[in-house]
Design a protein that fits this description.
It is built from 8 helices and no strands. By secondary structure, it is mainly α. α2 crosses α3, α5 packs across α8 and α6 crosses α8. The radius of gyration is 21 Å and the shape is elongated. 18% of the residues are buried.
């Protein structure tokens, strides 16, 4: 059965209802609005098979988007906790000023490396390491396969390593 096209106007008629459903799922207005936008995007990209079921379709899409948001946040929280545990097991620095200077230099190297990357590599790296998305999620957002997303992240990291090596010189 062919899918029935869904217009933006169709979606906007359900916006307020969808916003209340999203708010009930996540409990805050900003995330609810993000879920509404994600739902609209996904519905326009892959409309329901029958237009008569649009509200049901939207409910399923917004629920799945909320689940994905929760999973992503749990991964980020888990990584932050792991990082905090690793930091707490390290001995305190003997030279906190020197450590801060080194950290600042490292940040400059990283940002310089990111600036040198093209958008095709920079965006997947950003999604992977700042948003904590899995390769499959990155692929879905960029409309590429999970393997292509993994390769872009790998290529981007290799390019960034080259920038850092270039900055540090032949040591």
């Amino acid at each position: 059965m062919a899918t029935a096209p869904v217009s933006v106007e169709d979606l906007l008629r359900h916006r307020q209802w969808l916003r209340s459903v999203a708010f009930a799922l996540v409990g805050n207005q900003a995330d609810a609005e993000d879920l509404v936008q994600t739902t609209f995007e996904r519905t326009l990209r892959r409309p329901p098979q029958q237009r008569e079921n649009l509200r049901s379709w939207l409910r399923v899409v917004v629920r799945n988007a909320a689940i994905n948001l929760g999973r992503s946040r749990k991964r980020v929280e888990s990584r932050q906790q792991e990082h905090a545990q690793r930091r707490s097991t390290l001995e305190p620095s003997e030279d906190p000023v020197g450590e801060a200077v080194l950290r600042h230099e490292l940040e400059r190297f990283v940002f310089d490396g990111l600036d040198r990357l093209g958008e095709e590599l920079r965006i997947p790296i950003h999604m992977r390491f700042t948003q904590g998305l899995a390769y499959a999620e990155i692929g879905a957002h960029l409309e590429i396969s999970a393997e292509a997303a993994r390769k872009r992240v790998t290529r981007g990291l290799e390019a960034m390593r080259g920038v850092v090596a270039e900055k540090l010189g032949p040591n």
